[in-house]
Amino acid sequence: MKSGGQALVIFFAALALAGLSAAVHPKKPSFPDRAVAPGEISLPEVQDWKEPILWVDARLESDYEVEHIPGAVSLNPDNWSEQFPHFLDGWRPTEKAVVYCSAASCDTSREIADRLRRSGVDPVYYLKGGWEAWKSTR
Amino acid sequence: MTLLLNSRSQGLLALGLRVVLAGLFVVAGGLKLFDPAAFAVEIDRYQLIPWWSCALLALLLPWLEVCVGISLLTRWLSRGALAWVTALLIVFSLALLSAMLRGLSIDCGCFGRLWQSTGTFWPLVRNVVLLGITVFLWWQPHRL
Known about the structure:
The complex is a heterodimer. Chain A has two domains: 1-34; 40-136, Rhodanese-like domain (Oxidized Rhodanese, domain 1, 3-Layer(aba) Sandwich). In chain A, strands 1-5-4-2-3 form a five-stranded parallel sheet, sandwiched between helices. Chain A has helices spanning 3-24, 43-48, 61-66, 80-90, 108-118, 130-136; strands spanning 40-41, 53-57, 73-74, 96-100, 124-127. By secondary structure, chain A is of the alpha/beta class. The radius of gyration of chain A is 20 Å and the shape is elongated. By secondary structure, chain B is mostly helical. Chain B contains five helices and no strands. Chain B has one domain. The chains are: A alpha/beta, B mainly alpha.
């Protein structure tokens, strides 16, 4: 069998297994809407919360200084070692921490949320759509 | 390099590289199989294709990588598998390059969320090296 034919056989084998995943996998993606990843939270959900929220701005400090969500603290990979002790001073365990970065394409909010979780801050989420999602509702 | 190595050394090198390539694809696909929903979000972060196709790819790509890896390991349909490896590495590299050029701050998503690799530069370099290995293997048809 030539390379093309072999490639087709492999493709159909993978397609059959993917179909099986689509049917039975407990973590299969939802087709109509973008899935919310573990730890990710949408703005409408946050706005429905009754509990106090501690916003964490994971963007660059220069962006934070220009504008940020009211009450947000700046915490990003560059200032982590300097700012994290201050963050702990201000954080109360009754608060839900929500981290945001610039937009849906950035990954810093997830990274900071993971770091906070590993440091014992719980619950902590990262905002779907980030700062752009927040600004679009203002 | 082909001229400098004798036939036996060349065969051993091809075998070693084939096993490495196959292993990487099996691991990369296998890790993504745990959580296709999370992998779909990783693909979506590249902002290249609509969500429904991210979801479709998140179901298909991990199995394709696993099948390709097993084919390379077992030498069953290995020419077809090598064709897929070449095509996938080119597509992955173009996606990474596009993310870099647009300044997207995202994880590569190459190994799912269980094994995260930061940024897009080093995964791109790795893909280019793997493409080099693939080209070498294409020149060893009798050993595939």
